[in-house]
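Sequence in, structure out. First:
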Amino acid sequence: MARTFDIQLPHYPRGYHLITQEIISRLPRLPEHGLLLAFIKHTSAALTLNENADPDVRHDFTTFFDKIVPDGMTGFRHTLEGPDDMSAHIKASLLGASVMIPIKDYKLNLGTWQGIYLCEFRDGGDKRKISITIL
């Protein structure tokens, strides 16, 4: 039977933040086998799985995404909340709102170098809510 609950992350500044341990620390006892779905309930932030050992990954994420979708890009109309408004929405769409992770032996079955990232695309991003479903 599926279980769903929400967690709220504290405010994180703009950037790419490893939140694996923060997620794990808030999980109930996991089943022996199953799936965990984490879904962010926002349109200007994203979740992704990626390399968790080298901090240069975060720098390179920023370099890449800011190059392909810069803040204040010419032609954007949706700028009511500032120059990072529409660029944040596009970046969030590119990376996605959810990650699904297998559960094995009562633990998340992540690869050796995999971690869960919160990708915060707004300068003034607020606390973020994540819905967790365990299947």
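Second:
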Amino acid sequence: MTSLDAIDRNILRILRINARTSNAAIAEEVGISPSSCLRRVKIMEDAGVIRGYTALVDTASADVSIAVIINITLERQTEEHLNRFEAAVRRYPEIRECFLMTGGSDYLLRVEVANAGEFERIHKEILSKLPGVLRIHSSFSIRNVLASHPNSRR
């Protein structure tokens, strides 16, 4: 896909705020026809600019999970090692997010667990078996203070 123009960036801004906004409402806000808007969204989906849609869940209300933030340091930072690690991470739905980092660790992962026992299983069965891992440092969240959604309330 070629670079995004101002209209594409505006569509993305609206979808980040509320991915359930109707196509007609998005089109009206950005000043284009609904068919043109839908076509632009489809192009961004096909190109991987829009990778998916999700719901932000208030874990305190839904009593669903504890976020665990995991810093991973690899034995080596060669392209081959990075690619192997990233391919392995993509195979596990338990790993919700993975970021390549600068600084003290190579990757930051986020997983969600119901309890410490579930994390122990993930640590033993998944994290410790990822290729090239030298060090794993995990931190359990106490509560989510700010979600990425600008209208979320805590």
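Remark: The radius of gyration is 19 Å.
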